[in-house]
Design goal:
Structural class of chain C: alpha+beta
Number of domains of chain C: 3
Distance between the termini of chain A: 24 Å
Number of helices of chain A: 8
Strand content of chain C: 5-15%
Order of helices and strands of chain A: EEEHEEHEHHHEHEHEEH
Helix content of chain C: 40-55%
Radius of gyration of chain C: 33 Å
Chains: A alpha/beta (about 240), B alpha+beta (about 400), C alpha+beta (about 280)
CATH class of chain A: Alpha Beta
Number of strands of chain C: 5
Mean pLDDT of chain C: 80
Strand order of the largest sheet of chain A: 6-7-8-3-9-10
Largest sheet of chain A: 6 strands, mixed
Low-confidence stretches of chain C: 1-19
Oligomer: heterotrimer
CATH architecture of chain A: 3-Layer(aba) Sandwich
Mean pLDDT of chain A: 90
Chain lengths: ~240, ~400, ~280
């Protein structure tokens, strides 16, 4: 394992509501080393997705310190956080969130173009990624023409477009059947094996069982942080 | 993918709603363009007509153009003005009404001019000669409508009974010979017009001995210009009122034509506000439908500025495409609207309400550009302030 | 009655020339003329029918009147005066023409009973040839400038309705697309197409009615603003914009079917498709 890619100390996230603030994350400490593969589990409303969004610099903590890829999230302006996400972080969503008016190829190419990658390199990388996820033959199909599993694979390819150090997945198999879900999980295994840090929020025990480290959350805090056999036992 | 390309893709992938939006902008833009043409159309057209008539100054007795008493002492006034170095020619004009008699014996009412032409005349000869006596009879020039109505040709004899002044009673008919057929620049489409010499006009209308004219047409000498001619005439005869064509048009704009410039301003404003509201709503609804997409792009690392620029580019493409289409559509529409307005009485056939000026295109494009930017402001604000995580969360749940 | 342009020179009452106010005939001046020349009631003014101001007549201002607004002279300030007819004839007569003492420009006639202008014209022509009869409402309305303007405004309205219909359709298409899943669910739980069509049309009718009524209300509010502005701009009492019950009814009768048609047109593809294809992404 290399240097930490995520360091959180005393992180709290509260959402202001008319009836009073709702604390989604409570005084959380967490370190994720580079190259780790972990799952975040917990009951609905425990703060898993909120934590994932903070790791992805989509949300800033209300208090505490959160460093991603060595940079303090709270110190960064919105444009800097966007740039960090574009270059260093990949997102995979439960509902895929592919752009419906673009083909699979264009969806994967889009973040590379935004990052300023030259056309020739983009074409090569896009072709590689679509082959990587097994969809080279569907590159010119639009999302409505793809099955759920195919759409999620395109989403994973898109997330990997700019070679992120950190891949964040929020319930990636939530909309898929078991068999397809296993295929997706297999893909995450491969991504991790290729050196990317992978963090998966999931209810799916099958995914959690594949990750060497599992965080169990409850009421905005980490209830347990199990690694290796303990992680397996804890499930 | 650049913002323009992305915006174009977004629009092209939804051809139905894009086409409808573009057509709406084109229709609104056409109306706006026509109102810009209308705002100066009558003024430009009248100015062109006045200039084409060959005279660039008009002299009257009062400062109310074509209203008020006649200019008196015309003969010495004309002679003095013709001696001015700034003046090329002066033509005194009297106008009134007369009646000719058709083949069925019924009266045919017409407009009659009397003019003492010099080097220039205020009409364009189409056939025959000008106002020179024909076979010993007083000459009469007629327009095509009158020639057709009474089957006249150069050499035909015709009798006219003048009705040029109030209470003239029954004047005896005057006999003329048609010396030519001419085009009178200020004729309405259906006008029946004739012209004779000043002397014969006075005789026909019972105005012998009255050295008067309704107005004097003046052509400035080359190298001096109408402004110099006006100043010289004002210095020579301060009791008379001289107007250059430009000043005359300005007076008309202030009085008779002001309705059209006002209505064009009001309709242009209403059209712009209407277009602004509609484009804002269109873009806002589009943005509302794309919240998941926008939040995804932000989560992927697209900067806020980039996403906001997408919205602006969409607005620009929508309005720009519609705006380009609105120009030929507007020109076609202006032909229809012009035909409607030219049915008004006393409008010369050669005058148009809608006159194309390149300036109008520039103003039109500027206004549409401003509309595109303003209309995009609210949806841009929505996009800029979109909470990424909350949107992703809510889109995942719904 | 003739109102002639005249040289107007004001003299304060009792100021010179030995003319006593009692000798000067009375005259009414328009408000606009009073304001322009800075005159007041009681002052003596000189009027002349000659541009040079020769042979003026002296008159005493006994009142101010508001001229009836003439839409044909919009923008032209009503600089006018009203005199007794004998005074006007005396002011404008031609010394060389004895008949000028008996001349007027026009005689206004109100016909008794059912007015038949043509019959009156024939009878008058038989008794006094040479007179022209002009009805106050032109028989040939086609060339009436205000009829022409009405046609012009109608043409503008047609274009505006077309443009707004395009936008309306675009919006409805977008909104219907959002309802795709809802319609799919309704169809899959058993609701028939006809039932959904009734719902779509009902919604369209409600929106169109609400929009039309709001539009009429907005027009009524703006009416006051427009009239105030143009009355100020042209110093006139003319009414420029008037939302009558007929116009309101016409607007609603046009807007409602358009709204319904837009609802139907935009929903047509949804209603035609099978439920399962609607439910797919």
């Amino acid at each position: 394992m290399s240097a930490p890619i995520v360091e959180a100390r005393g992180v709290t996230k509260a959402f202001p509501m008319p009836a009073g603030p709702v604390v989604a994350i409570r005084d959380l400490d967490l370190t994720i080393a580079g190259g780790e593969y972990l799952a975040i589990c917990g009951p609905s409303g425990c703060g898993k997705s909120t934590l994932l969004h903070m790791l992805g610099c989509v949300e800033a903590p209300t208090s505490g310190t959160l460093r991603v890829d060595g940079r303090d999230v709270a110190d960064m302006a919105d444009a800097e956080r966007s740039a960090l996400r574009l270059a260093r972080i990949g997102f995979v969503f439960q509902r895929f969130f592919l752009l419906p008016m673009l083909t699979a190829w264009e969806n994967v190419e889009l973040p590379q173009a935004e990052a300023g990658s030259p056309r020739a390199r983009r074409r090569q990388r896009t072709a590689e990624l679509l082959d990587y996820v097994g969809l080279g033959h569907r590159s010119h199909h639009r999302p409505p023409q793809l099955s759920g599993g195919e759409a999620q694979r395109v989403a994973i390819a898109r997330a990997l477009a700019n070679r992120p150090r950190l891949l964040l997945a929020d319930e990636p198999t939530g909309e898929l059947d078991q068999a397809t879900g296993r295929q997706i999980v297999g893909l995450f295994d491969r991504v991790h094996a290729d050196g990317t840090t992978v963090v998966v929020v999931t209810h799916d025990a099958a995914i959690a069982s594949r990750t060497p480290r599992t965080l169990f959350m409850r009421d905005g805090s980490i209830e347990s942080d199990a690694t290796g056999a303990a992680a397996t036992e804890g499930r | 993918m650049r913002a323009w390309t992305f915006a174009a893709r977004s629009l092209v992938r939804q051809p139905g709603r894009t086409a409808l939006g573009v057509m709406g902008v084109a229709a609104v833009g056409a109306l706006l363009f026509d109102m810009l043409l209308l705002s100066r159309g009558l003024v430009v057209s009248l100015r062109e007509l006045l200039d084409s008539a060959g005279f660039d100054v008009r002299v009257m007795s009062t400062d109310m153009p074509f209203a008020g008493p006649n200019v008196t002492g015309v003969t010495p006034a004309v002679a003095a003005m013709r001696r001015l170095p700034e003046v090329e020619d002066v033509v005194p004009i009297l106008f009134g009404e007369a009646a000719a008699f058709g083949r069925d014996g019924g009266p045919v009412e017409l407009t009659l001019f009397g003019a003492e032409t010099g080097r220039r005349s205020p009409w364009t000869m189409l056939e025959g000669e000008g106002l020179s006596p024909f076979a010993g009879a007083p000459p009469l020039i007629v327009n095509r409508n009158l020639a057709r109505a009474l089957e006249l040709a150069p050499g035909t004899a015709i009798e006219l009974r003048g009705a040029c002044r109030d209470g003239a009673g029954s004047l005896p008919a005057s006999r003329f010979r048609v010396s030519g057929i001419a085009e009178f620049p200020f004729d309405e489409a259906s006008a029946l017009t004739a012209a004779t010499t000043l002397v014969d006009f006075r005789r026909t209308c019972g105005l012998e001995g009255r050295d008067e004219a309704n107005l004097l047409l003046v052509a400035s000498r080359e190298g001096h210009g109408p402004a110099a001619a006006v100043e010289a005439i004002r210095a020579l005869r301060p009791d008379l009122h001289a107007f250059s064509n430009e000043e005359l048009v300005a007076r008309f704009q202030q009085v008779g034509f002001s309705y059209f410039s006002q209505i064009s301003t009001v309709l242009s404003t209403v059209t712009l506000v209407f277009g602004f509201l509609l484009i804002t709503v269109l873009l806002t609804v589009s943005v509302n439908q794309r919240y998941a997409e926008i939040a995804t792009l932000r989560a992927l690392g697209f900067a806020r500025r980039r996403i906001v620029l997408d919205v602006l580019c969409q607005s620009a493409l929508l309005v720009g495409t519609g705006g380009v289409l609105s120009l030929p559509l507007g020109l076609a529409l202006s032909t229809w609207l012009d035909a409607i307005l030219r049915a008004m009485p006393d409008i010369p056939a050669r005058v148009s309400f809608f006159v194309f000026e390149p300036r109008a295109v520039a103003v039109h494009m500027s206004l549409l550009t401003l509309t595109a930017v303003l209309a995009a402001l609210y949806p841009m604000r929505l996009v800029a302030r979109l909470p990424i995580a909350a949107t992703l969360r809510s889109e995942s749940v719904t | 009655m003739n109102v002639l342009p005249a040289a107007v020179a004001a003299q304060p009452p009792g100021s010179g020339g030995g003319t006593s106010p009692g000798e000067a005939p009375p005259i009414l001046l328009s408000r606009q003329l009073m304001e322009k020349e800075g005159l007041e009631v009681g002052e003596i003014v000189s009027l002349s029918s000659a541009p040079s101001g020769s042979h003026p007549g002296r008159f005493r201002i006994v009142g101010v009147y508001e001229p009836v607004a003439d839409p044909a002279r919009l923008g032209d300030p009503s600089l006018a005066a009203r005199l007794h007819l004998p005074d006007l004839i005396d002011l404008t007569r031609d010394a060389a023409d004895p008949q000028s003492l008996e001349r007027v420009g026009a005689v206004n006639v109100k016909l008794a009973g059912e007015p038949d202008v043509s019959a009156f014209d024939r009878e008058l022509a038989a008794r006094m040839p040479g007179l022209e009869v002009h009805p106050t409402v032109p028989l040939d309305r086609e060339a009436d400038p205000f009829v022409v303007l009405e046609r012009f405004h109608l043409a503008i309205a047609v274009v505006t309705v077309f443009a707004s219909s395009m936008f309306l359709l675009a919006l409805m298409v977008m909104l219907v697309d959002e309802r795709r899943q809802t319609v799919a669910i309704l169809r899959m739980i058993g609701l028939r197409r006809g039932r959904i069509l009734v719902q779509v049309l009902s919604e369209g009718l409600l929106i169109a009615l609400a929009g039309a009524v709001f539009g009429v209300f907005l027009a009524a509010v703006l009416e006051d603003g427009f009239n105030r502005f143009f009355r100020w701009r042209y110093d006139t009492s003319l009414v420029f914009v008037r939302v009558t019950p007929q116009i309101a009814a016409r607007s609603v009768l046009l807007a409602v079917p358009l709204g319904l048609a837009a609802s139907l047109a935009s929903s047509w593809s949804l209603l035609r498709r099978e439920a399962l294809s609607l439910a797919r992404r």
